[in-house]
From TrEMBL:
A GO term from the CC aspect: plasma membrane
Protein name: Phosphate transport system permease protein
Organism of this sequence: Beijerinckia indica subsp. indica (strain ATCC 9039 / DSM 1715 / NCIMB 8712)
Role summary: Part of the binding-protein-dependent transport system for phosphate; probably responsible for the translocation of the substrate across the membrane.
Keyword annotations: Cell inner membrane, Cell membrane, Membrane, Phosphate transport, Transmembrane, Transmembrane helix, Transport
Family recorded in the similarity comment: Belongs to the binding-protein-dependent transport system permease family. CysTW subfamily.
GO BP annotation list: phosphate ion transport
Taxonomic placement: Bacteria, Pseudomonadati, Pseudomonadota, Alphaproteobacteria, Hyphomicrobiales
Localization per Swiss-Prot or TrEMBL: Cell inner membrane; Cell membrane
TM spans (from-to): 36-60, 89-114, 126-150, 182-202, 299-322
Cited SUPFAM superfamilies: MetI-like
Length: 328
């Protein structure tokens, strides 16, 4: 017994030392990860701030020359050094709006089918096939749109739209003019296809988070599939759906290569969806390497600044809507 007590007194300080060493090790490890994550956060903010500052500095010659008229002028003439951003802004907002209009209901519908109605053996392969669409490079979408989609629309769809809506007052303006194949409508279709996987994947994931007891209770009182989906699943997951739509809208606003191939790259505003147009990102991609002169380069940088501001306000508005939805 005496030997055991003596041995315990010998090992007690050793255990204390060991615990202190482990504690110091964990403490230093926590301090390292805290510093690393803080440095990463600061680096992101510094990069974001440096991008904004460089865009503002590059835009100064443009706004010093044209003032706020740069935002409301359609003219874009590098020969006479006259620039206005209204046509690219118009093209960016209109193509993104119609892309969301087309992709959002289709994406939610596919997500509902995959999560609620699709036979179990088909769910995984169909889901993977849709997610693979997000991994295709945008230039492939652009080439497909230029050589396959645009000729098909020019020969079969656009003439039918023009003939069908000619007698209808407002739609006759939206679907007017010669069927070029390329234009705002084709760009919106390409964008809709590109953002569809984002909406579908996120919506499907949030649909699967709905507690089974809620759906079983709804089925138990005699609700149909349609009623369960519209009265239980979608209201329960509306915040997640809005998040997916926000992500897709950000992709649509900034998409460059695919839109450049099929929009026509014309700096003008037309009431027809079939007319060639341009977007901010397409204008920058097309003309930046050919920009000669400080004012021309500054005008393109100013377009980048405008796209930055538009994206920031759209995402901020979406975030505000999400916060209000979560507060209800």
């Amino acid at each position: 017994m005496v030997e055991i007590l003596a041995e315990s007194k010998t090992f007690a300080p050793a255990r204390r030392d060991q615990r202190e060493r482990v504690y110091k090790l964990f403490k230093s490890s926590d301090r390292f990860y805290r510093t690393l994550t803080f440095a990463s956060t600061v680096a992101i903010l510094v990069m974001l701030g440096s991008v904004l500052v460089s865009l503002v500095i590059g835009s100064i010659p443009t706004f010093r020359t044209f003032g706020l008229d740069f935002l409301i002028t359609e003219t874009w003439n590098p020969v006479t050094d006259k620039y206005g951003a209204l046509a690219p802004i118009y093209g960016t907002l209109l193509t993104s709006f119609f892309a969301m209009l087309l992709a959002l209901p289709v994406g939610i519908g596919i997500a509902v089918f995959l999560s609620e109605l699709c036979p179990q053996p088909l769910r995984r392969p169909v889901g993977i096939a849709i997610e693979l669409l997000a991994g295709i490079p945008s230039i492939i979408y652009g080439l497909w749109g230029l050589f396959i989609l645009a000729p098909f629309l020019q020969q079969h769809v656009q003439p039918a739209l023009i003939a069908t809506f000619a007698p209808v007052p407002i739609l006759s303006t939206l679907f007017a003019g010669p069927p070029y194949g390329i234009g705002l409508l084709t760009a919106a279709l390409i964008l809709a296809i590109m953002i569809l996987p984002f909406i579908t994947s996120i919506s499907r994931d949030v649909f699967e988070t709905v507690p089974a007891v809620l759906k079983e209770a709804a089925y138990g009182i005699g609700c149909t599939h349609w009623e369960v989906i519209t009265k239980v699943i979608i209201p329960y997951t509306r915040t997640g759906i809005a998040g997916g739509a926000m992500l897709a809208l950000g992709r649509a606003l900034g998409e460059t290569m695919a839109v450049t191939f099929v929009i026509g790259n014309a700096h003008r505003i037309s009431g027809s969806l079939l007319a060639p147009a341009t977007t901010i990102s397409a204008s920058i991609a097309n003309e930046f390497t050919e920009a000669v002169g400080d004012l021309y380069t500054s005008a393109l940088i100013s377009l980048g600044l405008i796209l930055f501001v538009i994206t920031f306000f759209v995402l901020a508005l979406a975030r505000l809507l999400l916060m209000r939805a979560e507060g209800k």
